[in-house]
Amino acid sequence: MRMIDLIEKKQHNESLTESEIKWMIEHYTADDIPDYQMSAMAMAIYFNGMNNEERSALTMAMVESGDQIDLSPIEGVKVDKHSTGGVGDTTTLVLAPLVASVGIPVAKMSGRGLGHTGGTIDKLEAVPGFNVEVTQEKFVDLVNKNKVAVVGQSGNLTPADKKMYALRDVTGTVESIPLIASSIMSKKIAAGADAIVLDVKTGAGAFMKSVEQAKELAETMVNIGEAVERNTMAVISDMSQPLGNAIGNSLEVKEAIDTLKGHGPEDLTELCLVLGSQMAYLGGVGSSLDEARAKLEENLQNGKALDVFKTFIAAQGGDASVADNPDDVLPKAEYTKEVTAETSGKVSEIVADQIGISAMMLGAGRETKESQLDLAAGLYIHKKIGDKVEKGEALVTLYSNKEITQDVVDKIINNIKISDEATTPTLIHQIVQ
Ligand code: URA
Ligand code: CA
Question: How many whole angstroms from 267 Cα to the centroid of ligand 2?
């Protein structure tokens, strides 16, 4: 086989066969195919797309390019969740214990973050003592015993995707639905998922700006999932404003604890119940999404989800008293500042990505891979879109261990609009299954 023939085939809008795709990914991973040929291929795919057979073949070829986590020693259906990324997305911290509380094993490998805040792993490290580096054997033991463990990534998973993603980043080929879909699905499958729940975000703070784009991505991933025998469901959810009220590592841990106690922010709670129902249902709890949801709601009310959270934190060395006294246990910021409303009215816009960047400027996120996180840094949004506000009332509280500069305050003021009228955004646009 020759790569030039495959490039020309795709250029002429013909489909590639499974064996051609396998050959291409194998040889690209082994550095036998140069970046310039793969970037021509990525551009041809960008313009001409891929059908479901090609996307599924690409997904599995990337899965097979590296290590695959074997979760078969864990009893039950291993359901993983993936979010396409947003601002202040605290769902994993809530979902892991919540879904485990109804008996579904949650064996989660998470990453560190680049951007607005840390990833789930960074957030968990805000809990003193919490250990994210666990051997594969211990990981399996923890899930079998407590139904939940969240650890850092280990092993060489999907090296083909790492190489391709870096190449796409510099060749204008990131925004191709078949390439995004197979990239995401390959990582979940290599991490051992039997079933997958996807939270595809849409809006200003998301990768997919329109509901139509988000829907196309969601449907593409669900189709791949079916083709490769991983039951897959997706939610299209709003990211026109940050999720919940807290952005920042400690602040989000506290928000997750509030949510597990049944008094978290309305939007975060609802999204966790929607995603959690899908995870539980795919795992075999209840005969419908509604039945699965009722069980989750029950465990938020009766304290079982919070109990699982405590067990999970303690099992990984963390201080479980964080659940009862988060303010005493979590890192605290030396400096705080309130940003107040300059006029009265209703909050009509909160530009999610810019508010996320403000949190990063305070120290909550990494600008580069080497940046040090300030686990106490971040911000708390007091007013969400649609809320009434009086001039002088607090809009946002900022937290940091370095002195808070005026440019962060200005960024907040400039990115929260107050008008006479405001429409509350729809949180869940669609369920795709
Ligand atoms: N996220 C991924 O994991 N892969 C992509 O290709 C795009 C976004
Ligand atoms: Ca949040």
Answer: 9
Q: Which two tokens stand for residue 248?
A: 């920042």
Q: Of 299, 294, 241, 287, whose CA–CA distance to 265 is shortest?
A: 241
- Gap between the Cα atoms of 183 and 232, Å rounded: 15
Measured distance CA(125)–CA(259) in Å, rounded: 19
Dist. CA 402–CA 415, nearest whole Å: 22
Q: How many whole angstroms separate alpha carbon 12 and alpha carbon 16?
A: 11
SS3 184: helix
Q: Which ligand places an atom closest to the C-alpha of 168?
A: 1
All structural domains of the chain:
3-49 (1.20.970.10), 79-326 (3.40.1030.10), 335-419 (3.90.1170.30)
Q: Nearest ligand to the C-alpha of residue 271? A: 2
With both helix axes pointing from N to C terminus, report the angle between 249-260 and 304-315 in degrees, rounded to the nearest 10.
140
% of the chain residues with pLDDT over 70: 100
Mean pLDDT, the chain, as a whole number?
96
Ligand 1 contact, 181 CB (< 6 A): no
Ligand nearest to the backbone CA of 267: 2
Separation CA 80–CA 313 (nearest Å): 19
> Against a cut of 0.85, is the pTM above it?
yes
**Residues, CB-to-ion distance under 5 Å, ligand 2:** 88, 90, 244, 246
Give the model confidence (pLDDT) of 144-175 as tens digits.
Answer: 999 999 999 888 999 999 999 999 999 999 99
Atom 5 of ligand 1: nearest residue by CA position: 180
The CA distance from 295 to 318, in Å, is: 27
- 162 CB within 6 A, ligand 1: no
**How far does residue 124's CA lie from ligand 2's centre (Å)?**
14
Q: Which of 84, 196, 209 to mutate to test the pocket of ligand 1 (most atoms within 8 A of CB)?
A: 84
Name the strand (E) or helix (H) holding 348: strand 345-350
Separation CA 108–CA 295 (nearest Å): 21
Amino acid, single-letter form, for residue 289: L
As a whole number of angstroms, the distance between CA 433 and CA 429 comes to 13
